[in-house]
Amino acid sequence: MKIIAFEVRDDEKEYFKKYESQYQCEITCVPYALTQDNLSIVNGYDGVSILGRCCITADVEDRLKELGVKCCVTRTVGYNHIDVNHAHEIDLKIANSNYPPTGVADYTVMLILMSLRHYKQAMWRGNVNDYSLNGLQGRELHELTVGVIGTGKIGQCVIKNLSGFGCKILAYDMYQNDIVKKYAEYTDLDTIISSCDVISLHTPLLESTYHLIDKEKITNMKDGVILVNCARGELMDIDSLIEGIELKKIGALALDVIEGEDGIYHEDKRSDIISNQKMAYLRQFPNVIMTQHMAFYTDIAVESMVKCSVEAVHDFIKKGTCETSI
Ligand code: NAD
């Protein structure tokens, strides 16, 4: 069984080696993304392992199928970069990764706390020996209401983490979950929008969730609301975020992901002109924390992402299905 893994970082290589021998397969690792231009390289491989920079459109899927690939597995949890419907139509098997949600959930709580305590500004001041307190007075979580939108694996874990802080937690999802009900009160989206001090997003990016947070929703939020996004950038309309910050409607933004991050995040762009003007503009505000889509990035998650992808190809080929099949 032969697998080709794209976008492989150095820190993933030892795990590909480990699971190559465990699953008795042959794995080729390449650092670049799979594109229309280099598609022919997959010829002779049974399965393809990708990350988020590979855009698996219907055309790419047709070519993969023609070249004999049986399955395409993403090492990410989100799979908005894959045309899943078309893959089903042509019987190209697709799977995602199911690493533990704890890393992203911990990171989310960290961003909430950093925002409440103006940590970005405190850090800036420390760098220039400015130890003043003016403007750094924070708020305490136990006095606030936090809204969690999307109560799947990560949202649920965020809610459990937050329950230790004593805040009121409101939750919204189309599917209610009994574990969540122990710590949070389910309500409708409008109530989350209008009554929460902090709102954190944990839904996948779908047609129905694109720009879930837009101008109208921000207008209906509490003044000084803190918005956190560790899910996908396109869940929030970047123009509306900018307007909300400029009008001081939004008290703080903590974004591990941002609309238009593709081609920028996970690259060293120090010597380049940043092509996403809005992203560069948002970054300079004292109350906007932006990180490079790294909430997932822990030792446990990286090993698990690699293992999941190798296991998925192995199981698709040997058993016709796998646990993380989409
Ligand atoms: P999950 O599938 O377990 O949960 C998603 C939840 O969202 C589900 O309960 C679903 O019912 C709900 N949902 C879908 N549409 C909704 C809507 N319109 N309104 C409210 N709820 C809705 O997924 P997960 O493992 O919790 O991950 C969530 C997302 O986080 C992923 O899709 C991925 O995009 C993102 N993610 C980001 C990082 C990072 O490093 N920043 C890492 C992992 C995952």
UniProtKB/TrEMBL annotation:
| GO MF terms, alphabetically ordered | D-lactate dehydrogenase (NAD+) activity; NAD binding
Give the EC number: 1.1.1.28
**InterPro entries given in the database record:** D-isomer_2_OHA_DH_cat_dom, D-isomer_DH_CS, D-isomer_DH_CS1, D-isomer_DH_NAD-bd, D-LDH-like, NAD(P)-bd_dom_sf
The record's annotation in Gene3D superfamilies points to: NAD(P)-binding Rossmann-like Domain
Under Pfam families, the record lists: 2-Hacid_dh, 2-Hacid_dh_C
List each copy of the D-isomer specific 2-hydroxyacid dehydrogenase NAD-binding domain by range: 109-295
The Swiss-Prot or TrEMBL record describes its family as follows: Belongs to the D-isomer specific 2-hydroxyacid dehydrogenase family.
The record places domain D-isomer specific 2-hydroxyacid dehydrogenase catalytic at 6-324
Does this UniProt record's set of keywords contain Glycoprotein?
A: no
Keywords in alphabetical order = NAD, Oxidoreductase
> What is the designated name of this protein?
D-lactate dehydrogenase LdhD
Superkingdom of this entry's organism?
Bacteria
